[in-house]
Specification:
Ribosomal Protein L25, Chain P, elongated, Alpha/beta knot, alpha/beta, five-stranded mixed β-sheet, 6 helices, seven-stranded parallel β-sheet, 2 domains, single chain
Length: 236
């Protein structure tokens, strides 16, 4: 963890010694009482935390803010429901890359039972781990939809809407001219999109773009898509 994040109400309170952050500080970093490390408040300031108490039973830190929260990148990533293990990876990497929102929705070809996973009630720690890796305190806002139509109905008008699709693309992402500073990236599930879904998206002003000739894993496509978009809008 490059940045160790705490909830605001954890500062100055006793945390159990088995807490993953306490174990990392004690076993991996080998810090002791009085040592300081890079830390932040979830969705808040970044600064230094000083260890007040640290042993196998508890940890207490004092936090000294040094810089305010930075704004997340103006990107919404919209992903067709994937296997929970892949969704966890997407959550961590999206948080690490600093985007503002992460939406999930079921596709016609996707596995509907993924919507019943308990991940959707217990994903917070995956975002925290990703944000800490990316040295940011910002966690993307996660939203879960039960239809693609509801995703479209919720869409803000001030975003450039693109679909990453190598089956029926109208252009490539490298050649596409972005006219807005905010971007929404939509991907299908692991089995992709149907032509019915592509038609619906095109009818609602989503541009279908390809990233290349290869068929990528969903999590790989998410990372590649975010990277290309951030570069196109001048955020990298």
């Amino acid at each position: 963890m490059n940045l160790i994040l705490f909830e605001k109400n954890e500062i100055g309170k006793s945390l159990p010694g088995h807490d993953p952050r306490a174990k990392h500080i004690r076993r991996t970093l080998k810090f002791q009482v009085g040592d300081s490390f890079e830390a932040g408040i979830v969705n808040g300031e970044i600064g230094k935390a000083t260890i007040i108490t640290l042993d196998k039973t508890e940890m207490i830190v004092e936090f000294n803010p040094e810089s305010p929260r930075t704004d997340p990148f103006p990107v919404i990533l919209i992903v067709g429901l994937t296997r929970p293990q892949i969704a966890k990876h997407i959550m961590r990497e999206s948080a690490s890359m600093g985007i503002e929102q992460l939406w999930f929705y079921p596709t016609e070809l996707g596995e509907k039972s993924y919507l019943e996973s308990d991940l959707w009630q217990n994903y917070h720690n995956h975002l925290v781990k990703g944000a800490g890796q990316g040295f940011t305190s910002n966690l993307p806002e996660v939203r879960i939809f039960d239809t693609l139509e509801k995703v479209i109905n919720e869409f803000p008008e001030d975003y450039e809407n693109i679909v990453l699709d190598n089956v029926r693309p109208e252009n490539s992402i490298t050649n596409f001219k972005f006219s807005k500073a905010k971007v929404a990236i939509l991907l299908g599930s692991e089995r992709g999109l149907t032509n019915k879904e592509r038609d619906l998206l095109e009818d609602n002003n989503f541009a279908l773009l390809k990233m290349g000739e290869r068929v990528l894993r969903t999590d790989t496509a998410c990372i590649a898509g975010i990277t290309l978009v951030l570069s196109k809008i001048g955020k990298m």
